[in-house]
Amino acid sequence: MRVLMVASECYPLAKSGGLADVVGALPPALAALGHTVLVCLPGYPSVFAALDAAAEIDSYPELYGGPARVLRGRAAGLDVAVVDAPHLFDRPGHPYVGPDGDEWPDNGFRFAALAVVARELALGRVADLAVDVVHAHDWQAGLVPAYLALDSRPRPATVMTIHNLSFQGQMPAAWLGRLGLPAHAFGADGVEYYGGVGFLKAGLYYADQLTTVSPSYAREIQGSLWGMGMEGLLSARAHDLTGIVNGIDTTVWNPAADPLVSPPYDADTLERRGEHKAHLQAQFGLDVDPERPLFAIISRLAWQKGTDLLVEALDGAVGAGGQMLILGSGDPGMEERCAGAAAVYPGRVATWFGYNEAFAHRIQAGADGIVVASRFEPCGLTQLYGLRYGCVPVVAGTGGLVDTVTDADTDPDHGTGFVFAAGDALALRRAFARVAEAYADRERWRAIQRRGMAQDLGWTRAAQAYVEVYERAGASRHGR
Ligand code: ADP
Ligand code: GLC
């Protein structure tokens, strides 16, 4: 199958979160199954810095405020089509947010431009480029299925993946015409969403098939608690909605061959993690003590991630004899709360604010438990990296977290981590105590680590599931 993947992030070219990890790793996994994948991306400076052997395949005299070209080449081992539109994408740093910390006001047009280019690639405007299925990710690519369904030309099948329903891409109704959408599409049966143009809504309405990144989240978003206003549409389309748990890139995340982790280790040499732990403790100003369970957080600091619940439960981690290392960035108020908590427990709680890929790897290699306290979590990747690195996941029982971690107290023979009630700081506090107890029993702890490390976390299973969805999309093209 020939797949055109459309996304606003792709690891290692541009990343704000797990979406990038998925878009960077799914194409090679599909390629390994014999499919061809072209990834259509915005031309951020970081993408151009990695782009090789690029040739112009298309151009637009005017695309939302300036001329644009489409370059096809190789970047980070992927076949990419890059939208070279400096007036939209030649901005350093974060993909969506300016230096002032606010979203770029023209994000709607930036990602409409991406969608226009993707539509034309999908409809054969470029000779010798055929597409069987277009796979759009999150709101930034949400207009792609809409543009294609609203176009009279014969089109490929479309699949829309939800990585996070809380980012919806809501734009003013007055932009309808400028977004190239016909007036008749502005309705509940179309792109309209709470009086505006909903990019994600558009994708969810028009795509032939829908997916999200875990079966539990697929169920949760059909209800009012986590449907975020989209539950009506999603439950009406329940038969077209599949939950597929993300894989991880086991070449990037492999403790036995991770250039950021030295010495390397595997399930048989877990004692080497002690060295990594001691380094972390020293580097981040924690007491260097092998006996204390070292918990860690690697996360956006945000309401979704339950950062406030974590701060509330922190005394539980310390009370259980543990330490906590927080690597995160995001909400400045949340950063302040974490810093405040760290000040109360010197030597026991440490923070590092900012985004640092190397620290993320080293923390997975040295910490004992990776804590994910999310209120909702479509899939979550850090608990998967934790499983792979023998950093035992301590997770809220929601979404993809509950689909990927088995509680070691409830199921001692299969336990790979610890699961507590989502949204409940008291349950998290109790979980810290449960973990500390298990940690004190080295044999039991090693068994939990090894079971996690033995899980099949690669992308092959998920890539096969996506292929089935692509096939269904081809068969079910509903032509709305
Ligand atoms: P989300 O995409 O909702 O933020 P995921 O768990 O799916 O959550 O993915 C988060 C990704 O971002 C992981 O690759 C994780 O290692 C990384 N990450 C999050 N915060 C940081 C940080 N401060 N420094 C380095 N990596 C981070
Ligand atoms: C989103 C979700 C996260 C998921 C990631 C990749 O950012 O918040 O749960 O793992 O996308 O699918």
Task: Describe the 3D structure.
The strands form three sheets. The protein has a nine-stranded mixed beta sheet, sandwiched between helices. Strands 15-14-13-16-17-18 form a six-stranded parallel beta sheet, with helices on both faces. The protein is 36% helix and 20% strand. The chain starts with a strand and ends with a helix. The model has no long low-confidence stretch (mean pLDDT 97). Helix 10 packs parallel to helix 11. It folds into two domains: 267 residues, Rossmann fold, CATH 3.40.50.2000; 184 residues, 3-Layer(aba) Sandwich (Rossmann fold), CATH 3.40.50. By secondary structure, it is α/β, with parallel strands linked by helices. Alpha-D-glucopyranose (GLC) binds next to helix 1.
- Attached small molecules: adenosine-5'-diphosphate, alpha-D-glucopyranose
Query: Helical stretch count?
Result: 17
Mean pLDDT figure: 97
Q: Find the count of extended strands (DSSP E, 2+ residues).
A: 18
Give the biggest beta sheet.
Answer: 9 strands, mixed
